Every structure is written in C-alpha cells, then in structure tokens.
C-alpha cells in the first residue's frame, strides 16, 4: 500500500472508532443522569456525580499534554480506550453483585473523563501524521461530524434501548462501543513514533528542543509556547471567555427554556437539541468541503461573534417551530470555531509541543464550561432563561468583537 493509501486507511479507522465510541458516550451521558438520580434520590448529589466528569480536564490537562508529547500517541490512545472500556463495564458488574453506589458511579465518571483528558489531545495532535497538510481542515471537520452524528442519534437510541435493556444495559452497550474503537486503533499502522527524533511524515513536522530539566520544566515550556505565540495567546484567551459566557446557558439552559418558556416537555427538548446538532453537521460539512482556503483566524472570531448573537432571538421566541429554526441557525456557528481552531494549532505548533497546546485548549473549554454551568444555575434563580439568553447573546457577540483586537489571530 502506498504511503497516501496507508494514511487514508489509518484516518478512516480513527474516524470509525471515534464515531462508534462517541455514540457510546452519548448513551453513557443519558444513562448517567438517570442512574445518578436513582442511586442518590438527591439532585445535589446527582449533580456532583455528573460534575466528576469535568474534574480530570481541570486537574490533569497540563500533565496530560506533556504525556501526549512524550509518548507514542497511538499507543496512548489504545491504553486510554482499553481503560475506558473496563471502567464503564464496572457499572453492570457492580450492579450484578449489588455493589453499585453513588460513590462508585462518581469514580467511574471521573475515570472515564480522565481517559478522555489524555485521549482527545493525543487524537488531535496525531491527525497531522494521518492526512496531508491541505486536508487537515477536512479531517477536523470529519472528526467533528462524527461527534455530532453520535450525539444526534445517541439520545434517540438510548430512549429505544432503555426499554429493552434497562438503564444498566446502556453502560454495557457503551463498554462495547469502546471495544470497537479499541479494535480500530489496533488496526492502525502509523509510520512515525512520537519520540523526540524526527522522521519523514505527510507534512513537515516542526520540532523545538525539549526544555532542560524535569517534568515541571517541560510543562512550563508548553505554557511558554502558548504565551510567546501571540496567535495562541489570543486564541486561548477568547476561547476561555467565550466558554465562560456561552456554555453553561447553552447546556443547562435549553431544557429550562423548553419547559418554562415554551411550556413543553422532554420530546420537544429532544427535537430542539436535534435541530442544534443538525446545524452543526451542516456547517461542518460546508467547512470540510469548502473551507480549506478560508482564513482560520477570521473564521474563529466570526464564529464566536455569531455564537453569541444567535442566542439573542431566544429572548423574543415563544413558538416551538421558530425556536427549532433558531437553534439550527445557532448550531451552524459552532463549527466555525471548533474546526479552524484545531487546524490552526496543527499548522503552527511544533509537533513535540502540540499535545500540550491541545490540552490547554481542553482546559480552557472544559474548565470554563464547568464554571459557566455553576454560574448559570445561580443566575437562573433570579432571572428567566430568556433574559439570560439575551445577556449572553450580547456578551458573546462582544467577545467576538474583542477577538478582532488580537490582530495576529485575526490575520492568522
């Protein structure tokens, strides 16, 4: 097989594994909330179990990025996937032996997220070794589409399957999806090790010498890489601010909006969520097919402006059909941020520090999402969710305008 064919087959295997495992993830999140409520009979305790899934990205991202840059990324992904499959399988095993509790479920959630904290930066840092330089944007679009398809189909599938296999059965299915992903990774044959030496790859892989000293010096070197490149500095800053403003209301606020503003139920919540993911899929396809030459910096900043601005109409909308259209339009804006952000990092960051930068992005996204959800819960006690949407719409659009002040990022 030619090197081009080998790279293409490796990427296809990665994509299939991601599609299947992320489908399992979407089922896991449905089962997690219901099972947490059943085990604890307490909303605060159930929320703590769910929150355990945010902690690894906050606590481990800097260390995870260093590991990604020091070891073979494919092997690290294999290890993470094997551990995740085993951890998820503990839920039905513990239930069978009547050992399942809220504490066990929290530990499972934390362990699963720990694997993701290492797996996701490794995957994003590995992609430039699997595709040609001019196809990076399309590859990142396909990775995003796999997640969007999974989270579009997952809730519906979970609703059908839970009637047949029960809530515990959902965790068994998730464990099987991780095994499928594991097989796809084992079948991959990458030609380049992620050790400090340089070998030929599909694109030039810039390297810089490792920092002298120990682990902390290497962690600081990754931070230095992000700080000294003004494009990355601006990107990380507006990513953190945008997620602080937007993500809590976007995740936590939608079911409240459907219930309190539209006066509808779970079915309509599922449909409006589906409209959002349909918008994301359409936008990701467009960027993948047409966006290779689009300026990455302008696309990211414009996406952040629109990400905020498309929340403003929800202050005025009280009709379900119009809300679905508005949510579809909002979904169109998110890939404008995510896809070119990954491509830009892959193109400008030295290969042996790329994992650390992706880990920092993960920290900015997940950490500030967790804080945003906490703030949304507090604000929703005093403000209606439609008022919150108006506020975050204005502030999110302002964040996008702020991004234009980072000239190096804007011109990237």
The percent range for helix content is over 70%
Along the chain, the helix and strand elements come as HHHHHHHHHHHHHHH
- CATH classification, class level of the largest domain: Mainly Alpha
Fourth-tier CATH superfamily name of the largest domain: MFS general substrate transporter like domains
- Provide the number of structural domains: 2
Percent in strands:
under 5%
- What is the C-alpha radius of gyration, as a whole number of Å? 21 Å
Low-confidence runs: 193-205
| Backbone structural class | mainly alpha
For the secondary structure, the number of strands is 0
Identify the CATH architecture of the largest domain: Up-down Bundle
For the largest beta-sheet, the strand count, sense and barrel status come to: none
CATH topology of the largest domain: Growth Hormone, Chain: A
- Spatial gap, N to C terminus: 36 Å
Structure in words:
With 412 residues, the protein is an all-alpha fold. The protein folds into 2 domains: 188 residues, Up-down Bundle (Growth Hormone, Chain: A); 197 residues, Growth Hormone, Chain: A (Up-down Bundle), CATH 1.20.1250. Helix content is 79%, strand content 0%. It is built from 15 helices and no strands. Helix 1 runs antiparallel to helix 2, helix 1 crosses helix 6 and helix 3 packs parallel to helix 5. It is globular, with a radius of gyration of 21 Å. About 3% of the residues have low confidence.
